Amino acid sequence: SPACTELEVVMMDWLAKMLELPDQFLSGGKGGGVIHGTASEATLVALLAARSHAVNKAKECHPDMTDAQILGKLVAYTSDQAHSSVERACLLGAVKCRLVKSDENEKMRGDALQEAIEEDKQNGLIPFFCVATLGSTGCCAFDPLTEVGPVCQKYGTFMHVDAAYAGSAFVCEEFLPFLNGIEVTNPETRGIYFFEICDVFILRPVLVDILLLAHSIFFTIANLQHWQIPFGRRFRSLKIWFVLRLYGVKGIQDHIRKHVRLAHEFEELVKKNSAFEVTHEVTLGLVCFRLKADRATNETLLQNINKDGRIHMVPSESKGKYFLRFAVCAASTESKDITFAWEVIQELANQLTQILK
Questions:
Q1: pLDDT (tens digit, 9 = 90+) per residue, 178-189?
Q2: Phi, psi (rounded to 5 degrees) for 115
Q3: CB neighbours of residue 343 within 10 Å
Q4: What is the model's pTM?
Q5: Candidates 3.40.50.10310, 3.40.250.10, 3.90.1150.10, 3.40.50.1970; correct CATH number of 249-356?
Q6: Cα 203 to Cα 252: distance, rounded to the nearest angstrom
């Protein structure tokens, strides 16, 4: 539907301007935005586009190589803190996935990425794709794009930025510095950069020309079915229009800042109890914490919390340390809910420690 497409193009431009993305991500140039069903789908589409370009480029340099031989040499890179959907995308794309070891703050640094790429190149492999994460699932870590971007540029590796959790927070100016480095481009490789917050912003999209679907204005408007896996599309842009018109930019900013403030309230409650520790820096609405005890004790605490039924939590693990995750998500959450949740956790923790004694 032309009307649906036009609204989606306009909404993506609105979002890009809210996020202060570079002009090359706007629809007026070679880029533009498209709404994908999930962040996992966006990662897979990005990988497939990068893979297609890498295969074509390799054939130009080595005409005697077959597609299968090239695919066997392609390597994608991401942090060991990245979402499992990146590894799954590599499996579906039939390419190797290399997890780059993160630093003590769970970030994938540029020097670690460069070291991994250099090692693979020496072994005859072809680096072609890298996923940087802004707001990792486990502990909300942020890979520095100012380091990752130049490395990708140096080696002609396409960069995809996964901001599925933290991306919406970038409408607040205090969180915009996390986006520094998104403007890095590589004209020699026609770098495709995806940025996702359930939406995807694309620099230089790859199109598939299908004669059956061609019409007189085929190349004058965005044909978003070629920017995704399925041909069919849902009218999701209307939801974005309603949200933006109902709340406005300031309303969305206030909502995000409220969640961040509530997360810091919970963080302070944890720090006041000497039996607990906050394991990672609190940046947005996620607080990672644990009892100062062994893994088994923390696992039992989590089981008791979820079995109790008053609140629900999920765990994570990094560098051998098991911890609990408290995420502020609901639109109606207030300070009293934070206090209530902490009282439940303390109550069950006290019961557990009494039993262990």
A1: 999 887 744 333
A2: -60, -40
A3: 13
A4: 0.86
A5: 3.90.1150.10
A6: 26
